[in-house]
Amino acid sequence: MKKYILVLSICFAIASQNAEAQNKEKKENKEGKVSAIDHAKAQFDYAFEEFAKVKASGAKGVSPRTTKGDTLVLVASKDWTSGFFSGNLWYMYELTKDKKWLEKAKEFSAPIEQEKTNGVTHDMGFKIYCSFGNGYRLTKDPKYRDIMIQSARTLITRFNPTVGCIRSWDHHAEVWDFPVIIDNMMNLELLFWAFKETKDSTFYKVAVSHANTTMKNHFRPDFSSYHVIGYDPKTGQVTKRNTHQGFSDESSWARGQAWGLYSYTMCYRETGDKKYLQQAEKIGNYILNHPSMPKDLVPYWDYNAPKIPNEPRDVSAATITASALYELSTMVPEKAVLYKETADKIMKSLNKTYKAEPLTNKGFLLIHSTGNLPAKSEIDVPIVYADYYYLEALLRKRKLNK
Questions:
Q1: Is 123 a catalytic residue?
Q2: 335: containing domain
Q3: What total number of domains does the chain contain?
Q4: Distance (Å, rounded) from C-alpha 173 to C-alpha 178?
Q5: What is the largest CA-CA distance in the chain?
Q6: What residues contact residue 38 under an 8 Å CB cut-off, 6+ apart?
Q7: Half-sphere exposure for 113 (CA within 13 Å, toward CB)
Q8: What is the pLDDT of residues 28-47, one digit of tens each?
Q9: Torsion angle, CA of 31/32/37/40, rounded to 10 degrees?
Q10: Of 25, 111, 357, 366, which has the highest C-beta tally within 10 A?
Q11: Catalytic residue among 70, 141, 183, 222, which?
């Protein structure tokens, strides 16, 4: 009888916690009377209208990326951001179960298929995993599986075993012989997936080598990250350390820190190697305890930008961080509450202050992201990948609450 009462008590406690969490989610996701999901539905419907207008004017891009003035900017499939918009639509299908989003996700994914054999870029994960990866996860369409496997095979052709990394850029040859950027860590998820699907250990070995080499060379003692490490492709030696999109080479570019947190959390999930978990936690500690981090946890574009607080924010860095923290909360029981509540606080800030007004900003969900400030590109604008990791964070939050 005592065991029976104990079981009932535990069940009641869990049910109460779940109900409280779900009510909290509804409350936090509301801005006025519109929930985060309803806001996204309306914005994406508006985005489809704006996309059609731009296409009718002769634009040749396949996917929305950002805005420039009052113009919706589209990109070709080869652009590193081309997979995010269809990824957003796959997430909308997952969040709503409405087949309308399924059909739209298929429509916007299709033009990106040709990238599966594009070997002159490292951005295969961003383009293919965010689009067809989510599509395969949700539909198990064998065609999507084939596209992803081919994409993974294409990606590893850029691996240099002497360096131990996948080459990032082919441009700026006058600056770097073999550049590797922190963003490239995000593409490893495609390789881990390909290993599990094919049992070909080459994918796994390349991913682990890249993760280990990056962990060795990209991070400073305080676990902030350089953006670009230049290698000698013949010897594997480091030749340059730069922060190309940050304030200075020794500064901490906010999105780069977020990529590091997210990717090493993912590497621990895929390998079980605790050194990756420790790395993720240390990067997270650097981010969350940095003296330049604002109270709302939406960082400035660079933690060392000289005119803080009069510097642009980068909402994309915040959404990547929130999504990573939700996952990290499932891996560290003693810090689960801390990580989840911190992610919740970021999402609450985004919903309260950084959400686009309905039927504005060409249908993007969030405002105030910064792409590449040193190049005077995409400053204080909506950017598609900020929306992507925001929706992913909403999904992860929902799953945790349930």
A1: yes
A2: 32-401
A3: 1
A4: 8
A5: 77
A6: none
A7: 13
A8: 444 345 799 999 999 999 99
A9: -80
A10: 366
A11: 183
